[in-house]
Design goal:
Number of strands: 13
Strand content: 35-45%
Largest sheet: 11 strands, antiparallel
Order of helices and strands: HHEEEEEEEEEEHEHEEHHHH
Structural class: alpha+beta
Radius of gyration: 23 Å
Number of helices: 8
Helix content: 10-25%
Amino acid sequence: MNLAKAYPIADAVLYEGHILYPYRPSARKNQVRWTFGGVHPRAYSEASGGLEPCYMKVQCLVKAGSVAALAVRVRFLHPVHRQVLQLVEPVAELAAAGLPAHVPVDAMAVAGVLHQTWDEAEERTIETEVRLEEVLGGGARRLPIEFESRVSHEALRDESGRVVAVLERRQAALRGEIEISAREVMAGLLRLTLRVTNETPLSDADCAAREPVLRSSLVSTHAVLGIEGGSFISLANPPEELAEIARACEHQGAWPVMIGDQGDSDIVLATPIILEDYPQIAPESETPLFDSGEIDEILLLRILTLTNDEKAEARFADPQVAAMLDRADSMTADDLMRMHGTTRSLRPAPGLA
């Protein structure tokens, strides 16, 4: 069981919608971000009438005895709000006691670098291993989701070395729970349930707008599950005798797909984006582009059409984007040609001999 097999696919899901082409905060399509895999605070979910979920739930079928071992990795992005604060008067150093007088601004150029108010994201992973006998029947394994709020300040200096602005990063606390349980649905066949819930407290005022709520949400939430001493059953293509049991599995915000080579049955990825079993990253896809629904060649060609000013804005918006732009700029004509016109398989058109 090698859970790392799932990570290339899982990472594509993790950053789907993180920042879309043209990769600039000012671009209209980036005004609504992280639309997949949101697990929001319960108060916000209730205020929306349940339209915005406060939990993710996935069920899988497992052929296994009670001594089989299950490995679980729940992964998500934890937003970080980055605010540019312009100092009213430049200072030599930041005082330990607090910030000098300042005003928040959307963007500010300092020493030739454009700094922007923006939401970054930190990857989070919560993992556990459990024997199925521990969670069978009325048993369950519960793991807390506990991340404290954090505030940090980064001084921005002009060409003379004076501090003229500060980047303030604020990360909201998160509270929630991961629950793993199982029950036998027939001899030797278990239905495994994974539930991820967000219990971060929010006031009525906090629930008024989506953007601040996202900072208290689990974003792009998904899970990787691996089994030793057993095997997962495909829910997309179950054996005929298990089809009805497979249809009875319940899901909220995630769908389980088989991972690995065709026929492998020890790893499942529960993803908010519905995929076929055994999804693969094309070998030509050498760089994450944050838009898995697009064709890499088209996106890379679009990136190359960005002006220097547009690239500068994108580069300083997010370190992940800066790394992606560097890789795109370094690609040769041969690299681009390798992405063009690849045929994976051929099969007859329906109705033709």
